[in-house]
Specification:
By secondary structure, the protein is mainly β. The chain has 1 helix and 11 strands, in the order E-E-E-E-E-E-E-E-E-E-E-H. The strands form 3 sheets. The chain has a 5-stranded mixed sheet with strand order 4-11-10-6-8, with no helix packed on it. The protein has a 4-stranded antiparallel sheet with strand order 3-5-9-7, with no helix packed on it. The radius of gyration is 28 Å and the shape is elongated. The relative contact order is 0.20.
């Protein structure tokens, strides 16, 4: 909006004298939303612990109130996002992974996220990794969305240690049966 601006000019050569000029400054709305670093960046799930949790801050760096859409994207997992203070949520016709937040200028909201893989590996020598990301964009604006990227590591039920132990037990059983 319009703001009054006063420019004052003083000179050390003429102490006590100054010149003033009054004007109007038209400050246009500036939209900028920022996603902070995801913590932790790499989350782990296993057969004993199937849901991983993470946090990501969302900040309005603009100069007016913004409505921001937050989306979670993961190919091989289901994701859920909740702001720490839920008074900023508006219900809307969005999928469960989307939030619509209202942010004041300079305000930061921390989102608590949880991610759960659709399937866990049964037998593997290493964990299955898959990327996921959180996108934030200003509602009604055509800007490139901001992104925070994370990685999901899904550990198998039978990993290298359990496979080696199973092989040793099977070898022991076969030797014991062959001696009978």
């Amino acid at each position: 909006g319009l703001r009054q601006l006063v420019v004052v000019v003083r000179s050390p050569d003429y102490p006590g004298r100054e010149s003033r000029q009054v004007g109007l400054l038209n400050v246009l709305p500036y939209d900028d939303v920022q996603l902070g670093a995801m913590a932790p960046r790499t989350v782990k799930v296993s057969w004993g612990h199937r849901i991983a949790r993470f946090e990501v801050p969302v900040t309005n760096n603009g100069n007016h109130v913004l409505q921001t859409r937050i989306q979670g994207q993961a190919e091989s997992a289901e994701m859920h996002l909740d702001p720490v203070g839920s008074e900023q949520i508006e219900a809307g016709p969005f999928v469960a992974e989307d939030l619509l937040l209202t942010l004041e200028p300079g305000k930061t909201i921390v989102l608590n996220g949880s991610i759960r893989p659709k399937r866990l590996p049964l037998l593997s020598m290493q964990p299955r990794t898959s990327p996921f990301r959180i996108l934030a964009n200003v509602v009604g604006k055509t800007q490139v969305p901001r992104a925070a990227v994370g990685q999901l590591n899904a550990f198998p039920l039978f990993g290298p240690r359990r496979v080696a132990l199973l092989a040793m037990v099977l070898t022991f059983v076969l030797v014991a049966v062959s001696l009978l």
